[in-house]
Specification:
The complex is a heterodimer.
Chain A (H helix, E strand, L loop, with lengths): L2 E5 L6 H6 L4 E3 L19 H12 L6 E8 L3 H14 L6 E5 L10 H22 L5 H27 L6 H11 L4 H18 L5 H7 L4 H11 L9 E6 L4 H9 L3 E6 L22 H10 L10 H15 L3 E7 L3 H17 L3 E6 L6 H15 L7
Parallel strand pairs in A: 1-2, 1-3, 3-4, 5-6, 5-7, 7-8
Chain B lengths: L3 H8 L6 H5 L2 H13 L7 H19 L4 E4 L6 H4 L4 E3 L1 H10 L3 H10 L8 H11 L8 E5 L5 H13 L3 E4 L7 H22 L5 H24 L9 H4 L3 H7 L3 H20 L5 E2 L2 E2 L2 E6 L8 H8 L2 E6 L14 H10 L7 H14 L4 E7 L3 H5 L1 H10 L4 E6 L9 H23 L1
Parallel strand pairs in B: 1-2, 1-3, 3-4, 7-8, 7-9, 9-10
Antiparallel strand pairs in B: 5-6
Helix pairs in contact in B: 1-3, 3-4, 4-14, 6-8, 7-8, 8-9, 10-16, 11-14, 15-20, 17-19
Classes of the chains: A alpha/beta, B alpha/beta.
Amino acid sequence: METVLGWVCAYTPEEVFAALGIESFRLCGGENQASAVQYLPVNLCPLARACLSEGLDNAGTGASLSGVVLTASCHALVHLANAFQHARGGNGQFFVHLLDMPRTFGREDDAACRAFAAALRDLAGRLGEFYGAAWSDEAFLTAIDKQQQVRLLLRELYRMRRERPEQFRAAGLLELVRAAGRTRKEELAPVLNSLVASLQDAGSGDNWDSAQDGMQDGGPAAAVFLEHLRRQGSSLGPRLLVTGNSLPPAYFDLIEDLGGNVVGDDLCQSYRYCLPDTEQTLDGGGRDLFMTLARSYLRRPACPRMLAGAERFAYLQALIRECQAQGVVYHALKFCDASIYEYALLRNRFMEAGVPVLYLETEYRDAGLEQARTRIQAFLEVLGPPTEKY
Amino acid sequence: MMDVEGFMRHMLCDRQRWDRVLSSPLTYTLLGGVLRLTRGNWPLDAMYQMGVFAFNETGRAYVGKAPVVWSSAFFPVELAWGLGLCPFSPEVAAAYIATLGFGEETMSMGEQAGYSRDICSFHRCIAGAASAGNLPRPAALLASTHLCDGAPLLFQNLAALYGAPLLALDIPYNSSPEAVRYVAGQLEQLWLSLADVTGQRPDRDKLAEAVRCSERFRVQMQRVNELRCRVPSPVSGNDMLGFVYLFFVGQGSREAAEIAAGLAKEIERRVAGLGRSGQTGTQTEKYRLLWMHLKPYYNNELMKFVEQDGGVLAMEEFSHVYWTPLDPEQPFLSLARKTMSHFAFKPVTERIRVMAELARKYRVDGIVHFSHHGCRTASGGALMIKEALRDEGWPVLVLEGDCIDGRNEACGGMLTRMQAFLEILQERKLGCAL
């Protein structure tokens, strides 16, 4: 069985793994959280519990985990690292690394960038030692380049979705981004290229069949992705921005089934994955590539765990304007401190700004879908159809 | 005779008057009087001294005699003392609000302000008290990112509420020399920013003096802990948990160092006069426990039950002095090392190692992990800790509960679990005796 290195948080620098030639796999967790029961209490983040189960069961990986790199983003992920170490790390054959992630907002904090760069360098050293892989700056630059290509292509899909959301299934886009965290970028880039090109050719009409025909280089993978992305909704549905924690796919489908159009998101398993612009900061980092990478990750729009409440609200407001969203769905995972505390702050800010918000709380599984149905329905009714033609 | 809590309850019975009562110097004069009258009732004179210190500082904060800075638990508060500021711990305030019986209504206000019941009840209580305007207005809020995800996030929200700056200390897990320098650099910047925000002159001699006081506190608390190795225990651990105020707010103050020295002397005297009868104060010591995390503050039933059944908290996780000596000549490096060396801010194996070491040193019969519902740091590792310590032969009880919020607590259930655990300890003792 092939072995892969698992990771979870969108701040994880896949570029370092790729530079060392280590296959990596983004753990996203599934419905089953049973294997976590022994290690993590029920009042801990369900995403962490789901990822532990996925990792321990090798579920969905099609491969066996040889280790995990987890960012110290929050105490749930810290305990996830502890749980992996506890369950698998005893014999020294399983790599467990907790990557320090500054919480102060990196845009103006050079010390935080330097600290993160040092943490990345340390990670590269430890990985190299464990996997017997040699470091090369050339390979690192190639990895940065490939990663950036994939991000840009994914962003193009998000741009198209923003323009004609009624044709895009949000859960399909989520699946695609999840897949990006599980696939070699040099293999994924042509698939995405083909997908983007054919959807661009298909234009704004309901012409996805021609898009399917138009795909030549992407192979069957592109066709499958396309099928999963496809949706036939109404452009008159309320336009929504989804933020907070990663929303289970079934909830995206529910929102769309009820007539909503997801026009944008700020979720770590979705749009946030596509954000760092590493290339643009290469010069700024000088010769220190780790510093370059650290800056690119820390300077992107902050996530709820960062202490950047004001910047985050400004960013979300800009995103709302950019997507022309009528309302916001804020999703908090049960027991996720970062989003629960943030919501208390954002709720008031959104209220002051006149942005309607629906607060959804889930246990990162489909349970509770029916209770959510009524609330989503009521929210969409309040929003009504878009007042302008987008 | 009225006790201090009774007096406070009486003074604060009308919530509409809280602001007036708490910001009136007369309140603290009266409180000082009540404290003096009740001096003989305190289990330890050091507790009385700490009460005087705590109420003086609370008065200073509410009456506005010095710029108030809020500090989260585990933040190196020496920085504030070194600038002559008035540090205020809202987490300690939340515990006191619960002790006085005002926890439920205050938490409800926090929930109305948008804070879910799934977060730490200390923080819900703080959010409620802040939204009602019942806490002293901060000139700045100091929070560190280690050991608690919630505190810096809450402080960020409340900084916006008060229009005061949040000065956050980012602490990495790894403690390489580079990481220590990163934290030390932040501490220096924070100290300067804090001086600037509060209009104080950053004086390195005053900071060195605060670090010196903190070091004296460390030495004295270590002395206390050495004395506590004695069997039977010379002091009640339940009482010792009250000194968490000094750990969170006092380090760096002259008063905390003096109280700790007084406590050490008091326990020394007790040890000298302690017979072999197994008496700790008025109770019989049947089981020696290592107590992890804190305790319920909203009522005393659990702790009373433990003590009535002959359980003694021989040592508490929160009383452990884990950090190395501080050097006043290198305040920022010293405080960085201190802050980063907390055993719970390491892989969970370190917390397990330290707890096992304490269990051996204090010759405990069992270990209780009080799993405060909203504390991801502590309760997140509880199952792994239980398994590992059990593998080492220690009986461990993970007791799920809440320090502040008693609304969801089936207290009977908690007592039953505790009783069953104490019975197991009893059986083990009998087994050993046979």
